[in-house]
Task: inverse folding
C-alpha cells in the first residue's frame, strides 16, 4: 500500500466526513506506537503531526535502545529488568532497526566514580541475568587497563583501572518511528504530517470530541471528529492540554536539552560504543559511539525554556562536551572546527519526577547501609557461603524501597505518566524510546475501555509484543542471515555490494519493494543507483514531502554522511521538484529550509561561518 502525498489527500478528504475511534496528536515514537496498536486492533485511527514524523524529539536521541546499566549502581532492579525486557521486545518487532553493539565502560580511579571494578562486575552480572544473555556470546566480561587501551589507544591512561563490556543496542530512532507509522497506515490508519492542532473540540456535554486542525501545506482548517483523543506530543504535552478550555490543569513537563556532536572517525577513532563518567564529578556519564565512518558523542542534560520547535546547539553545549571528550581522549584535541554535524533534542521529562533520570539517576534515595549490605551478600554468594535466594531477598527489599510504588496507577514506565482530564483528554508523557510500546499499550487500553463504556464498541487488543512494524517481517534470531540474502538479491539486480547492504539494513523486509523500483526508476544524475531508488521509495511509500525529510530522517545523510551531502543536495531537490511539480516559490522555500538545517547542524553560527 502506498503511503504518499496522494494518500494524504485521500485521508484528509475522508476525515471531513467521518468520526474516528481515536485521534492521536503527535507523530513521535509514542504516538506512532499508539497508532500501530490501535489500528491493528481494529480501531478507526487517525494521527496528526504538525511537523514531519519524528521531527520533534524522536529523531534527536542518542540513537541507542539503552539497557540502563547505571540504574544498577543503586540496585534499582525493577527498572533495569523492565528496560532490558522491553528492549528485547522492540528488537523482536523491529529486528532490522535495533542491532546489538556491545558497550565498553572504562572505570577510572576518581572521586564520585559511578562504578568501581568490583561494583561494575556485580552490576553487569545482574544485568546479564535480567537481559537473559548469561552464557551467550553477549555475556559481559571485564578488561584490564592494558586491554582497554589496546582497544582504545586514545583513551586517557592516567587513573584507568580497567573496564567492562556488556550488551547494548544501537538504534535508528527516526526509522523506528516511520516504520510504526507505515504499519499503522497499512492497517487503515490515517497518518498525516504537517497537520497542526489549533483547538480541542467538545460535544454538547463538554466531553472531548476531536480537534480543530490546520493543514500546513494548504492553510485549510477543519475539524477532525473523534470519540477519543490521545495527546502524545512529548514536550508539547502542556501546550495541547492548555488548549483545552474545558479543563484547568497545571503544567507538568520539564523539558531538558540534549546535544550530540559528530566528528570524523580519523579525528576520534573509537571501535565500539563507549560509556564513561565525565570526570567532572557532576554525576553524569557520556556516550561515544562509532557510526558510518564517523564518531558522535553526547549528551548534555540542561533545563530548557526556549522554542520547543527549534532547540539549538549553543556554545556552552559544545564547550562542555569538548572538555569532557578531550579530557578522556587527550590526544584527540578536538576543536569546534572538527565538528561535522550536530543535533539538539528535548527530553519530555515530567517535573514531578525530580529531574532527569536519563543517566540512570534514581529519583528516590537508597541508604549507604543498604548498598553495603547488597555488596556483602553478593561477595558471600560468590564465595559459596550463602544461597542465591538470600541475595534475591535483599534485592527484593531494596527494590520495594527504591522504585515506583505499585499503588501508582498512572505510572506506565520509568518517568512516564498516563492521565485523563475531566473532559476525557488522554495524555501520555515522559518515558524513553525503549519504553514506547508499553506507553502506547497503556494508552490504547484506556481508549478501548472508554469506547466500550461510552459507545458500546468492542475491540480485541493485539499482542503488540509480537506484532512487527513495517519492514520487521524477519526472524529476529536470523537477522544477519536474512539481511545477507537481501543483499545478494540487490547485487544480482546490478547494485554494488555496499549499496545493497545499505538498502537492506535501512529497509529490512521492505527491501524487495525498494529493489522493485530499479525496474522503473532511472538513475538520477548526481545520485547513486541506491540513493535514486531510496529517494523514490521515500516519496512513494514513506510520506517524504521535503528534502529535509529525506536527508535527515528517512536517511542519515546529513548526520553521518556529511562528506557526500553537498554533492547530492541539488539532485535530490531537483528530482523532488520534478516529481511534485513544485513552483519556483515552493522549490526556493524547501531549498532554504534545507540550507538552514544544514547550517545549524554544521554549527556555522558558532564557527563564525555565516553570510
Result:
Amino acid at each position: 500500500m502506498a503511503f504518499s502525498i496522494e494518500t494524504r489527500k485521500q485521508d484528509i478528504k475522508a476525515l471531513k466526513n467521518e468520526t474516528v475511534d481515536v485521534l492521536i496528536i503527535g507523530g513521535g515514537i509514542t504516538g506512532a506506537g499508539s497508532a500501530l496498536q490501535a489500528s491493528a486492533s481494529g480501531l478507526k485511527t487517525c494521527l496528526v503531526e504538525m511537523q514531519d514524523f519524528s521531527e520533534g524529539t524522536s529523531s534527536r536521541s542518542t540513537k541507542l535502545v539503552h539497557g540502563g546499566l547505571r540504574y544498577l549502581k543503586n540496585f534499582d532492579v525493577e527498572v533495569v529488568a523492565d528496560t532490558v525486557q522491553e528492549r528485547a521486545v522492540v528488537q523482536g518487532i523491529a529486528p532490522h532497526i535495533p542491532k546489538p553493539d556491545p558497550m565498553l565502560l572504562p572505570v577510572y580511579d576518581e572521586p564520585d566514580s559511578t562504578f568501581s571494578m568490583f561494583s561494575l562486575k556485580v552490576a553487569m552480572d545482574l544485568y546479564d541475568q535480567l537481559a537473559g544473555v548469561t552464557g551467550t556470546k553477549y555475556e559481559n566480561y571485564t578488561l584490564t587497563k592494558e586491554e582497554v587501551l589496546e582497544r582504545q589507544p586514545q583513551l586517557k591512561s592516567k587513573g584507568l583501572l580497567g573496564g567492562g563490556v556488556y550488551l547494548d543496542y544501537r538504534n535508528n530512532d527516526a526509522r523506528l518511528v516511520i516504520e510504526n507509522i507505515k504499519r499503522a497506515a497499512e492497517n487503515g490508519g490515517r497518518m498525516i504530517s504537517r497537520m497542526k492542532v489549533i483547538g480541542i473540540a467538545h460535544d454538547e456535554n463538554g466531553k472531548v470530541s476531536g480537534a480543530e486542525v490546520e493543514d500546513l501545506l494548504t492553510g485549510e482548517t477543519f475539524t477532525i471528529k473523534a470519540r477519543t483523543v490521545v495527546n502524545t506530543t512529548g514536550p508539547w504535552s502542556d501546550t495541547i492540554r492548555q488548549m483545552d478550555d474545558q479543563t484547568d490543569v497545571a503544567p507538568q513537563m520539564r523539558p531538558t536539552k540534549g546535544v550530540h556532536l559528530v566528528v570524523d572517525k580519523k579525528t576520534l577513532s573509537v571501535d565500539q560504543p563507549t560509556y564513561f563518567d565525565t570526570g567532572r564529578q557532576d554525576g553524569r556519564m557520556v556516550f561515544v559511539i562509532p557510526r558510518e565512518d564517523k564518531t558522535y558523542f553526547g549528551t548534555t542534560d540542561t533545563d530548557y525554556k526556549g522554542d520547543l520547535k527549534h532547540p539549538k546547539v549553543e556554545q556552552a553545549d559544545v564547550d562542555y562536551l569538548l572538555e569532557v571528550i578531550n579530557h578522556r581522549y587527550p590526544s584527540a584535541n578536538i576543536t569546534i572546527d572538527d565538528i561535522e554535524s550536530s543535533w539538539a533534542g528535548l527530553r519530555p521529562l515530567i517535573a514531578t519526577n525530580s529531574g532527569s533520570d536519563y543517566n540512570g539517576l534514581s529519583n528516590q534515595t537508597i541508604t549507604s547501609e543498604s548498598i553495603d549490605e547488597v555488596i556483602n551478600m553478593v561477595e558471600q554468594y560468590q564465595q559459596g557461603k550463602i544461597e542465591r535466594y538470600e541475595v534475591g531477598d535483599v534485592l527484593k527489599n531494596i527494590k520495594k524501597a527504591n522504585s515506583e510504588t505499585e499503588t501508582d496507577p498512572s505510572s506506565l514506565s520509568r518517568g512516564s505518566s498516563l492521565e485523563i482530564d475531566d473532559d476525557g483528554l488522554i495524555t501520555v508523557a515522559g518515558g524513553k524510546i525503549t519504553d514506547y510500546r508499553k506507553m502506547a499499550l497503556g494508552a490504547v487500553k484506556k481508549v478501548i475501555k472508554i469506547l466500550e463504556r461510552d459507545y458500546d464498541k468492542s475491540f480485541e487488543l493485539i499482542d503488540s509484543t509480537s506484532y512487527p512494524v513495517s519492514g520487521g517481517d524477519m526472524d529476529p534470531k536470523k537477522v544477519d542471515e536474512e539481511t545477507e540474502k537481501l543483499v545478494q538479491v540487490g547485487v544480482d539486480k546490478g547494485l554494488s555490494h555496499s549499496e545493497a547492504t545499505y538498502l537492506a539494513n535501512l529497509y529490512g523486509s521492505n527491501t524487495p519493494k525498494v529493489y522493485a523500483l530499479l525496474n522503473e526508476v532511472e538513475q538520477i544524475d548526481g545520485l547513486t543507483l541506491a540513493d535514486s531508488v531510496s529517494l523514490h521509495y521515500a516519496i512513494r511509500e514513506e510520506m517524504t514531502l521535503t528534502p529535509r525529510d529525506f536527508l535527515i530522517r528517512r536517511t542519515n545523510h546529513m548526520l553521518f554522511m556529511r562528506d557526500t551531502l553537498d554533492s547530492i543536495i541539488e539532485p535530490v531537490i531537483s528530482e523532488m521538484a520534478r516529481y511534485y511539480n513544485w513552483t519556483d516559490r515552493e522549490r526556493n522555500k524547501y531549498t532554504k529550509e534545507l540550507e538552514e538545517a544544514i547550517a545549524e547542524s554544521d554549527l556555522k553560527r558558532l564557527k563564525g561561518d555565516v553570510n
Q: What stands out?
A: The domain at 5-58+174-251+408-455 is CATH 3.50.50.60 (FAD/NAD(P)-binding domain). The two ends are 45 Å apart (CA to CA).
